[in-house]
Amino acid sequence: MKPCAPCPGLRYVLALLLALTPAAFAAAAATPNDPTGIWAGEGATLVVYDCGRGSYTGQIVLDNDPLPFTNATADAGTLKGRFTHGGDTFDFTLALTAADAATLTSGTSKRALKRTDTDPFSAVGDLIGKKEYDRAWAHLRPLADQGQPHALFVCALMHQNGWGGPPDAAKANEFYERAAAAGHRSAMLNLGVSHRDGRGTKADPAKALEWFKKAALRGDAQGARNYGAIYANGQGVPADLVEGYAWLAFSGDAPARESMEKLAAKLSPEQLERANARAKELAAERDRPAAPTTGGVGITLEMRDGKPVITALRKGSRAEAMELKAGDVLERVNNEPVAGKSLDQVNGLLAGEPETMIQLSFRRGDAGVQIAMPREPAGR
């Protein structure tokens, strides 16, 4: 498959699911205090996803009955959470006794489990591979509601490829934007493809370059190749062979070499020297420590009927303390209406310097809700 193809095939997508989980959210080498992964044994399976900041979500399957849970917490090797079954709510704990062994307790029931996989997304990949899309969505939705970046990315792929419904490129882009805002570089790459090819949005070379650059500076070689190809070929921008060669060299991978050889034949020795110096500048920029993240407001939004609606609140956030609720519709940010703006534009309004004040107006049913609060501290 060509690396720039707009619609990944099944094999490629499953590879993304199983191999490209961001390091910050993928299960690391199993340790006694890490509950992330897939656990099984004694008539029970437990799939645990790390949503970051000490929050976990997933699904317990007891005797073939799937029971989702959200907002679980882990402390000293014990995961604590709640699930609903038959209209009743039950507490559960998963107490890790070793890196790959734990005891699942709910009420008086205790079951010994073994960790069978440190990557919980392999379960979603298996379901997609078997075309069990409803079950895949059941896994993904609670994760996406909590803003888990890789889950948002997989939701975008589901919409893009029509897994479980008709293909919807515009909806896919909304999920890509949310995943990209959370730092998912493959989502940034796919947004670049969408804007380059007009997939679910108007073709916009400037936005394509913006997203390819963001992906490349986070280490995505294909993003660097795509950026270089746009300049080398003059796709919607004036051709710049030096800049094109520099980005292809910066990608550092084999697929770029043939294009680099063709460009090198067109460059003077002085231009080639400038291009190589530029590639070194880009590598230094990529390797530079990331700047502190801007402060947000602790909410996850989703576009519904063109309106930004709260789908989740980060536990312990100021938005939670202000008693905002899932289902609240955002109408204004600092008195600026958000009607007609994209999800990416709305999230841009919400971001800002940590601890700076922000005013928000929501619609809750027939009532209006106005709050003012400081943005979250950096890194939250």
Task: Summarize this structure as a short list of keywords or feature phrases.
disordered N terminus; Serine Threonine Protein Phosphatase 5, Tetratricopeptide repeat; alpha+beta; 38% helix; Lipocalin; single chain; 27% strand; four-stranded antiparallel beta sheet; 3 domains; Pdz3 Domain; 380 residues
Describe what this molecule looks like in 3D.
With about 375 residues, the protein is an alpha+beta fold. The chain folds into 3 domains: about 25-120, Lipocalin, CATH 2.40.128; about 150-285, Serine Threonine Protein Phosphatase 5, Tetratricopeptide repeat; about 300-375, Pdz3 Domain (Roll), CATH 2.30.42. The chain is built from 13 helices and 14 strands. It has an 8-stranded antiparallel barrel. The protein has a 4-stranded antiparallel beta sheet with strand order 12-11-13-14, with helices on one face. The chain has a two-stranded antiparallel ribbon with strand order 9-10. A hairpin with a 2-residue loop joins β5 (about 80-85) and β6 (about 90-100). α2 (about 120-130) packs antiparallel against α3. It is globular and about 75 Å long. It starts with 9 loop residues before the first helix and ends in a 6-residue tail after the last strand. The model is unreliable at about 1-30 (pLDDT under 50).
